[in-house]
Amino acid sequence: MKTAFRFAAIAAALGTSLALSVPAAAETGITEVVKYYDLNLTQPTDAQKLYRRLQGAAWRVCRDTVSGSGAAAMLQQGTCIRTLVESAVHNVNKPVLTALHEGKAAEADLTASR
Questions:
Q1: CB atoms within 10 A of CB 101
Q2: What is the domain extent for residue 87?
Q3: pLDDT of 10-31, one tens digit each?
């Protein structure tokens, strides 16, 4: 069983979508390991804990790869975080975590459309 997921800001580790969406991340090679050996991902509360860990790691990686300030940088950082979390959830490949992520994504889409 996998018990850690490495956030890698390189295309080879997370797929081509990251390289296309976040070119600065591919150049830096910043990584962060997210461990979840202590979690039972069939339990919603543990899936939520992992999801928060993934979001935090994505935020830290993207904070260090997206430069600049203002609206454009904020949009790029948001795209970076969403891309990394999406990729991590896909790679962990646990139904409860995937359902949680899909629910959060639907919530974000609904909020953005208001």
A1: 20
A2: 4-112
A3: 333 333 232 333 444 445 567 7
